[in-house]
Amino acid sequence: MVPFAGTGAGVGELTWAQQGLWRAMVTTASSLPLGGVSPLPPGFTVAAAGRVLAFATARHPSLRTRLLPGPEPMPRQEIAAAGEAVLTVLEAGTEDPGVVADRLRARWEDTPFDYTVEWPVRMGVVTVGGEPRRLVAVYCHLALDMHGLDVLIADLATMDPDTGRSPAPVAGTTALELARRQRQPAGVRQSAASLRHWDHMLRLIPARRLPGSARRRVPRWQELGLTSVAALHAVRILAARSGLRTRPLLLAACAVGLCRVAGTDPAVLQVLVSNRFRPGLADLVTPLAQSSLLVVPLSGAPLVEVAARAQQETVRAAKNAYYDPLQLDQVYERVDRDRAEDVDVDVFYNDRRRVAAHDDGGPVPTEADLRKSLGSAAPRLDRELERFDHRMFVHVNDVPDAVDWTVCADSHHLGREDARALLLAMEGALVEAALHG
After folding, report:
1. S-S: 108 plus which of 138, 212, 218, 301, CB 3.0-4.6 Å?
2. In sequence order, which ranges of 217-343 are alpha helices (DSSP H)?
3. Is residue 17 domain-shared with residue 124, that is, in the same domain?
4. pTM of this prediction?
5. Is 185 contained in some domain?
């Protein structure tokens, strides 16, 4: 056991972003965990791993937060002033320590956290003959998001390995303080402004998003992927030619692909917005991302023009991604009632790449490079799921040397063949634009 102590103790409501995550976690029966496995340098000790765990939990209140059962619809959270965290030590023996670490990570990711009892971080050391070789860390999504994990990793780099201390100041706002701010007049006004935008857009867009499916599969949700070198060459050629970044170009490819498969125009997606551009939020180790509605008309325009529109609409979406999700439910209900139909916006898009690394990736490929890479990728079935929280979710994943998409789709609304067609349509939209303008 590793003792810890820190500031910011208290009890309060979940933040808006945490409320959205809690719903997803309940629906999917998953903690939606983040984390991974890291190799350890020679001389690293189990005691040093304990200092890392104590440092992280002491400095970041989200890592010493548990839930309190409460009245529906949302639990409350409690930040502890002190406690003890578990550091697991696992001897690999004759096994490959990397294999043992991956197995531990997978088991932890597949096992939901006990939210009222367990701290939201699981950390372990895999040893060989008592010598640490791998560090495994898995975090509950209620404690942090991907950007928060980046902040945590950067903070860990400031720790003195001998003393377990850091000269760097800690971000002062806790999730409890943020939740209180969101319920004060300025937060209420921001939420109301965002919800007015949602209400306006929901009244304008066509109600249907997806084509439907005659074959309802079991398991119901199908996750397909495509890893395309050709798409990477194409998007980098287009970025160099147009002056746009790769993010709006990939978003435009998704918009074009979705409209081709579903036979709709405009493209309507919910995009995830980090919200870390808002004052005082950049360095918080807590989830902040919320979705916002993005509407991109195609009207037969070239992909680069669609990307420019997408970039403009992304700015508007970002301004309106900070709101009370329980009040958004009321907006949905009111609009559906007024329109006398269900307006489907359960289609999500998330670009999870560290964009700077992809946009500054060395020499721009040539059209010859692109043509040489054509036909090298094919859609794959990654997994089948009994439970998921959306009708469709497109991810752009952070992998080197390719564009990697996953599409998780409800087979009642988007069949497996249509999901395959969407992946190929996104790749095709980029390649066509790069080769033919």
Report:
1. 138
2. 229-242, 246-262, 303-319, 325-339
3. yes
4. 0.91
5. no
